[in-house]
Write a structure and sequence with these properties.
By secondary structure, the protein is an alpha+beta fold. The chain contains 14 helices and 15 strands. The longest helix has 21 residues.
Amino acid sequence: MADRSIPLSLKAARGAWLTAQKLDEDAPFGEGPEAVRRAVEHLGYVQIDTINVIERSHHHILHTRIPSYRRSDLDTAQADDKSVFEYWTHALAYVPTADYRFFAPAMDRFREAPGGMFAAIPGDNYAALLRRIAKEGPLSIRDVDDDALIEKTHPWGSRKPSRATLRFGFFAGDLVVSRRTGMLKTYDLTKRHFGWRRRPAPASEKQCASYLLARALRAQGVVSVDSICFGDLRSKRLVAEAIATEVRRKRLTPVRIEGLEKTQHWAAPSVIESAGGSPLPRERIRILSPFDPLVIQRKRLKALFGYEHRFEAYVPVAKRSFGYFALPVLAGDEFVAAIDLKMDRAAGRLLIQNWTWLAEADAGLREAVDEALAGFERFQKHAAAPGAAAQPDQTASSG
């Protein structure tokens, strides 16, 4: 059978991804809590992470696309507007409340077969916890003061057994994180938090596969089965069937990316038509989180951009190349540097721990990166909570 795939240059595929990620615009989602809702709905998820040497990654990701972003915007979207909620994608993330029914099947599967430490949680303890929250209102682990403490079994664990019980309720869907203060989570009954008489009916497996496909097309532009099913390998067969259906309906077109012919890709006809347009100027700088949706799929990132990001927070110091928490720097459609940054919150200064140039840097590029770092520092000062000062190092300048 003749190959009917449309050829697409690597540069055009990169451009389609950047456009889908809204990294080619200055303020694509507007501002305030509504901008948070629109951004999360468009991207599909915003990953949460605990590392706080600079502003945490979920805030960083949103700031990249919402220049006026403030931490309170996400707080409002989660706790007051209830337009986003926390659940597991490939990692813990903020996801759109409008998509809740596509996460409900995972909640039901967890409830039926919790596994691990969750399988040992006594049912009467769990029922008692739900009754307490129903009676007393939202609860954080700090509000639990009657636990018989146990030894930690993991460095990130807790001596309070109630923490595992709260997490069980979260993964089972009975509880939702109603508010987050830093990394402290307050849990409430899901139906009460959202004001539901009953939760949305779980989507079918086919509907979930179609959802994953639509989410990837919206946020990636050009997709493969692997990029669609990142973190959800069990859905590959149904996603492949959903793709075939969309191809038959002429809503998707097979694409053959230059140099990546061994992997089949697809895109909407409108994306193919617009791909390869005006290139992004090299002076358009984006300082990205290592957990940004553009960066987190490391194999896809390397294939399309030729850049292999190293996350080295848990790598021994002597073996690090980029640094503890290096941030990839995108100039136009090229990754030009990786900068390990740390915020001295007492002094209000962004410190450079390590700077690795990945491309030739002329005066114009250096100036553009310095300007972006200055803006990033302003964001850190405005958004960061008071905390202990980091040790002085280099200030933020390419020199």
